[in-house]
Amino acid sequence: MLKRILILLPLGIMVLLFAASCELKRTNPLDPLGNNNIYTPPLVTGLTATGSGAGVVNKFVELKWARNVINTDGYYIYRALAYDAAYSRIDEVGNISSTNIMTRIIPIDSPGFYYFKVSAYKNYSDGTLEGSLSDWTIAYVAN
Amino acid sequence: MIKTILFALLLLICTGLQAQGGFDIDAFTNPQKYGWTTWEDRMNYRFDLMERQKLLQIYELEAQSVTGNVLKSAVFPGWGQFSTKYYTKGQVLMALEIGFLGASYLFYDKSQSFYRRYQNATQIDEINQYYHDAQVPYQYSMVFLTFATVVWVYNIFDVVQTTERYNAEVWQNTLKSYYSSPVQVTPEGIQVNF
């Protein structure tokens, strides 16, 4: 019995180590860790949102954020009704600005609090890679 | 070239024949070499040999082939142990193998579900999250597959020993049942045990 244990124990440990070191291949063509020529768009920073004031007929929210200099072809804008709710993509904008500040006007139907996030994206031949979503920001649209 | 090879071959054959030497007919036919001093000794030996051959035939009918049982256990772990009537061992090995392979498959299936999402993801956080979600069950799957492999290897190792033990028991039982039978035919005559 001891002989069997002495044979099987090292064998088991070796195979377990082998199994634990097994990794799935990173086959997604947009995965930067699997492709050396793919770069993740930088995180959007400096996001602010300002809601339209009271009595404005065409209500809106004005978003501003710092323009990414590298690895960015455009931005996706997300909106939610609570900071921890599911954010849905509502708009898209190219990385075009005369300054280092990006500005976007989002039309709003009804007054209230709105939460926004923005992410940068980069186009590649295999698709579009979207970066991480920014921290949320809040805007109040008055009645 | 061919002539040289043929000559060398001929030389080799001749040397071999020369090395054999003469055949010793006296040594070959000498009955003393087996320890037979009388005609009765020789008959007793012959009778014993025949009895053993008879027992061997009975043994070969009931004994099991190691190769056959290894093949059975290789195809389905525990099958060889079942054949040798080690039912508990067979059940345990079979249950372990099915359990480990089943767990491995379940984790692999879960892993592949996340892996497909990873392959279709276009957002960096989702790419990383789905890859991680696929990787963890994949490693569990590999670990369980490893256990299944260890059980399979042990099962093959065990079935060889189990079959040898079974065959030894068959031989012992054959001897036991033969010598404890109530009627035996011996050189001295028929022996009846009461």
Can you characterise this structure?
The complex is a heterodimer of chains A (143) and B (194). In chain A, the strands form two sheets. In chain A, strands 3, 4, 6, 7 and 8 form a five-stranded antiparallel sheet that branches. Chain A contains one helix and eight strands. Helix content of chain A is 13%, strand content 38%. Chain B is 79% helix and 4% strand. Chain B has helices at residues 2-20, 25-29, 39-62, 66-75, 79-83, 87-120, 124-179; strands at residues 183-186, 189-192. A two-stranded antiparallel ribbon of chain B has the order 1-2. In chain B, helix 3 packs antiparallel against helix 7 and helix 6 packs antiparallel against helix 7 (124-179). Classes of the chains: A mainly beta (143), B mainly alpha (194). At the A-B interface, helix 1 and strand 7 of A face helix 6 and helix 7 of B.
Structural class of chain B: mainly alpha
Strand content of chain A: 35-45%
The overall pLDDT average of chain A reads 89
Structural class of chain A, by secondary structure, is mainly beta
Q: Topology as H/E string of chain A? A: HEEEEEEEE
Radius of gyration of chain A: 24 Å
Report the portion of residues of chain B in β strands: under 5%
Low-confidence stretches of chain A: none
Strand segment count of chain A: 8
Averaging pLDDT over every residue of chain B, what do you get? Answer: 87
> Main sheet of chain B?
2 strands, antiparallel
Provide a count of the helices of chain A: 1
Biggest sheet record of chain A: 5 strands, antiparallel
Write the topology of this structure.
The complex is a heterodimer of chains A (143) and B (194).
Chain A: H1 2-20, E1 48-51, E2 60-66, E3 74-80, E4 88-94, E5 101-107, E6 112-124, E7 127-130, E8 137-141
Antiparallel strand pairs in A: 1-2, 2-5, 3-4, 3-6, 6-7, 6-8
Chain B: H1 2-20, H2 25-29, H3 39-62, H4 66-75, H5 79-83, H6 87-120, H7 124-179, E1 183-186, E2 189-192
